[in-house]
Amino acid sequence: MIEVKNLKKKFGNDLVLKNISLEINDNEVVVVIGPSGSGKSTLLRCIAKLENVSDGKIFFDDIEMTKEKETLRDLRGQLGMVFQHFNLFPNLTVLENIILAPILVKEEKRAKAIVEARRLLALVNLQEKEDAYPNSLSGGQQQRIAIARSLAMHPKVMLFDEPTSALDPEMVGEVLNVMKELAHEGMTMIIVTHEMGFARQVSDRVLFMDDGHIIEENRPNEIFDHPQHQRTKEFLDKILPN
Ligand code: ADP
Ligand code: MG
Q1: Across the strands, what pairs with 7?
Q2: Protein residue whose Cα sits closest to atom 21 of ligand 1
């Protein structure tokens, strides 16, 4: 579904993605781990077309997204992205937040968009909040609304960049549960997270990034129990409780 070939990304003279190649298959859940500054967010942002790449190619299905002429319109809605900070529109209700893009971008009828929004609110277990304003909700609830808002565009792939990092610990589980549910439904996902228990349970594959490279990738149990590279070991020693 997604193929990244020899991707390089520079900020000024700083090469932050150094030659990344990877493939994401349909229905696959891939977790990306690695130290701060290793390029995880930049990789996601390049895939989501939020950054221009400096070199290399990214294909989505068989469309080369990195071609000059390939407009955002062709891809709009096909990739959903959820960030650490949810950025809901504070002046709109939960329901209005969710139906906004389908109506404006996909030109869906309001009534149809509302039916779909209610289905998604049920999926994230927040049916009773459709008339609430974002600021009246907890961080975990807001992040679940952000996920519902993203899903309203019917993306083929969901990208998550540390979706639980800004949450109080007691709210992490409710967001991870929604992501687990999506995984069960077969959503293709790329997830940057430090939640290793979740990664072990839900992912098909884990990529370890360091200093702009993918150092190692494997099934979660392999990478967590038998890391092959010293840098992976050192990172996991720091992050895993024992
Ligand atoms: P991670 O998500 O793994 O913490 P990032 O992808 O955010 O890493 O950052 C990788 C490197 O790129 C870091 O050195 C960061 O400072 C740099 N970087 C990220 N975004 C920008 C930007 N917009 N301008 C300049 N440098 C950036
Ligand atoms: Mg990041």
Answers
A1: 20
A2: 11
Give yes or no for residue 41 CB within 6 A of ligand 1. yes
Residue 9 Cβ < 6 Å to ligand 1? no
**207 bridge partner residues:** 32, 217
Residue that is written with structure tokens 């961080």 in the block:
139
Could you tell me what percentage of the chain is helix, strand and coil, using 3-state DSSP and rounding each to the nearest 5? 40, 25, 35
C-alpha dihedral sign at 58, 63, 67, 73 = negative
Q: How far is the CA of 36 from the centre of ligand 2 (A)?
A: 7
Predicted confidence pLDDT, tens digits, the chain (242 residues) = 999 999 999 999 999 999 999 999 999 999 999 999 999 999 999 999 889 999 999 999 888 887 766 555 566 678 999 999 888 999 999 999 999 999 998 899 999 999 999 999 999 999 999 999 999 999 999 999 999 999 999 999 999 999 999 999 999 999 999 999 999 999 999 999 999 999 999 999 999 999 999 999 999 999 999 999 999 999 999 987 76
- 163 C-alpha to center of ligand 2: Å? 10
3-class SS letters over 181-204:
HHHHCCCEEEEECCCHHHHHHHCC
User: Taking the model in full, what pTM does it have?
Assistant: 0.94
| Phi-psi domain of 30 (left: phi exceeds 0; alpha: psi -120 through 50; beta: other) | beta
